[in-house]
Design brief:
This protein has 384 residues and is α/β, with parallel strands linked by helices. It has three domains: 95 residues, Membrane-bound Lytic Murein Transglycosylase D, Chain A; 229 residues, TIM Barrel (Alpha-Beta Barrel), CATH 3.20.20; 42 residues, no CATH class. Helices cover 34% and strands 27% of the residues. Helix 6 links the parallel strand 5 and strand 6. It is globular and about 65 Å long.
Length: 384
């Protein structure tokens, strides 16, 4: 795996020739349907060690049987298959260089507006699917959208659907009696909806209430995941089955990668997901990384790399500065996940660029969930 920085007037075909890879595979792995990259853009270069040219009548299932490869691995290495099918004459990657970091779990967030097609495209990389379909206010649940289709898709693919509940009311403003009733409501909704667990966001309950919530969920065969940052009390991770950590900037102004390292040395990382960034920033506005890159390409803007933050930046014709995560930063996060023993990664299914997932897939084998009935929380094994 290499990360190539595009030079002035350099074309995708030039990069493909330089590294001896098929141009179509290079475009596929970077989400480039057509057109050229912007100067200074990062391009992910994965070198297949085994390829196959699609013939009429081929299916992913037949190829999996023929070559002894799991169907989901073929799809993960060739993400266009789910949306475009097998196109005769197209070159497929059947094997890349050996994965270097063993296994990891991946959690994908599914929100309203994310299509079933997009979910299917990302499923092969996932262990968990967190469906952000519930909000909580003053101890009452409010459904944001119907997540049953997403749950059905996840379960049919042997993935683990989690119901995300985001709390809008500080827990210290909710009485213990109301909180216990609220816990029952969450469990009932999750059980009826076919979920296998719950992801709590915006919650900082007392340790006593969190332990009670997990105890009730264990009795209903549901797992409990908490969303945390560096300011969260340690028990938010210790008393749950797993956690998703996002960097809030509270560690003395250090970068998010340094924050992950600091968290791992002070608290528990083996049951924690590190979140991959989903957005580019333009002033006080946010746009997706893909959209920021498309604007840079269309405008012919030059991207500049900032080593201190791992960001790529460019100024548009109006002088507005846009900052987006570089692939070098994503690789640094994945390296940190491996080095410090994190459980895996978490990302927004609708907004994560395919290059992030191809990089993740080239480093890790996707793990599967086995059992959660242990003090240590979620357990993993390679999903062979």
């Amino acid at each position: 795996m290499r990360i190539h920085t595009v030079k002035q007037n350099e074309k995708i075909s030039d990069i493909a020739r330089k590294y001896g890879v098929d141009e179509d595979i290079l475009r596929m792995n970077n989400g480039l349907e057509n057109g050229e990259c912007a100067e200074g853009e990062d391009v992910l270069v994965l070198t297949p060690t085994r390829t196959y040219t699609v013939r009429k009548g081929d299916t992913a299932e037949r190829l999996a049987l023929r070559f002894g490869i799991r169907r989901r691995d073929i799809i993960a290495m060739n993400p266009r298959i789910e949306s475009e099918g097998l196109v005769p004459g197209r070159i497929l990657a059947l094997k890349y260089d050996q994965r270097s970091y063993g296994m990891a779990a991946a959690n994908g967030y599914y929100y309203n507006g994310c299509s079933p097609e997009e979910l299917n495209k990302k499923l092969s990389y996932l262990t968990y699917v967190t469906v952000g379909c519930q909000a909580a206010e003053d101890g009452r649940l409010r459904r944001l959208f119907d997540g049953r289709d997403a749950v059905g898709i996840a379960r049919s693919a042997d993935k683990i659907p989690l119901m995300r509940v985001y709390n809008l009311t500080p827990c210290d403003k909710i009485s213990k009696e109301k909180y216990l009733f609220f816990t029952d409501s969450i469990i009932n909704q999750a059980t009826r909806g076919g979920y296998k667990g719950v992801t709590l966001g915006g919650f900082i309950p007392s340790a006593e209430l969190l332990v009670d919530m997990r105890r009730r969920m264990i009795g209903c065969d549901l797992i409990l995941i908490t969303e945390i940052n560096e300011k969260s009390p340690p028990y938010m991770s210790e008393y749950a089955d797993g956690s998703i950590m996002t960097h809030s900037g509270s560690y003395d102004g250090c970068t998010d990668i340094d924050a992950y390292k600091k968290y791992a040395t002070e608290l528990e990382s083996s049951r924690t997901f590190a979140a991959l960034p989903s957005f580019a920033e333009r002033g006080d506005k946010y746009l997706t990384v893909d959209e920021a890159l498309k604007q840079a390409r269309r405008g012919g803007y030059k991207l500049e790399y900032r080593e201190d933050s791992g960001a790529l930046e460019y100024n548009d014709k109006n002088g507005s500065l846009t900052s987006l995560p570089s692939l070098r930063k994503i690789k640094a996060i994945l390296d940190t996940v491996h080095e410090y023993g994190y459980m895996g990664i978490s990302f927004d299914i609708m907004r994560a660029p395919i290059s992030y997932l191809m990089m993740y897939n080239s480093c890790y084998g996707t793990s599967t969930y086995t059992s959660v009935r242990a003090r240590e929380g979620c357990s993993r094994e390679r999903g062979e």
